[in-house]
Amino acid sequence: MRKLTYLVACSIDGFIGDPGGDASSFMRYIDEEYLEFLTGEYPDTLPAEGRRTLGLDGVANKRFDTVVQGRGSYQLGLDAGEPSPYGHLREIVASRTIEESPHPNVEIVRDGIVERVRELKAEEGDLGIWLCGGSRIAGELVDEIDELVIKTYPQVYGSGMPMFASGFAIGDFALDAVRSFGNGVVVRWYSRR
User: Fold this and answer.
1) Cα 115 from chain centroid?
2) Neighbours of 72 (CB within 10 A)
């Protein structure tokens, strides 16, 4: 069975964006050491434009062959003129407001995202599924998440978009690894208990 990995950037206090969902303040921490880590370990999670800029076009997917995201996360690509922002992956977008897909590589799931993710996890294959965000879809899929990769940036937001927009429920995960960087970013890997 394939794994669903929620790989997400957040502030020290657990917000993935400000109250409007903007997380651009994290970008100031992309230095040479951290970029080398991202491009070496998670090149699949870079959008197509970033891959082109960094000369990673044609680099084989390392960890994921599918990305799942909510409408808000997908809208960032649309606003940048990229209807298929992760064209090197199969793209699944959970949205009740997009009537039809603006790109052949993008599958719109209007209802039943949990069931669709279960189908994806049951497929054959060595590569996993990346839950890109945002908060609401992570809340809906919290029970399906097998692995968390949390990139914590040395900022405190105070309020904003939480990692999971869901009701109160305790879910236990085991800490597998931690890596810190000179820029203050800490990456933690957790697996579901």
Assistant:
1) 19
2) 17
Q: Where are the alpha helices (DSSP H) in the chain?
A: 32-41, 48-53, 71-79, 113-122, 135-141
Residue 168 has pLDDT above 90, yes or no: no
Give the three-state DSSP class for 119: helix
Residue 130 CA to residue 89 CA, distance in Å, equals: 10
Tens digit of each residue's pLDDT (9 = 90 or more) over 22-48? 899 999 999 999 999 999 999 999 999
Give the H or E element holding residue 86.
none
Beta-strand ranges (E) seen in the chain are 4-11, 15-17, 64-70, 90-94, 106-109, 128-133, 147-153, 161-162, 173-180, 186-192
Range of the domain at 8: 4-192
**CATH number, domain at 47?**
3.40.430.10
In which residue are the tokens 């189908």 written? 119
Please choose, from the candidates 21, 60, 39, 47, the residue with its C-alpha nearest in 3D space to the C-alpha of residue 105: 47
Rounded to whole angstroms, how far apart are CA atoms 31 and 173? 30
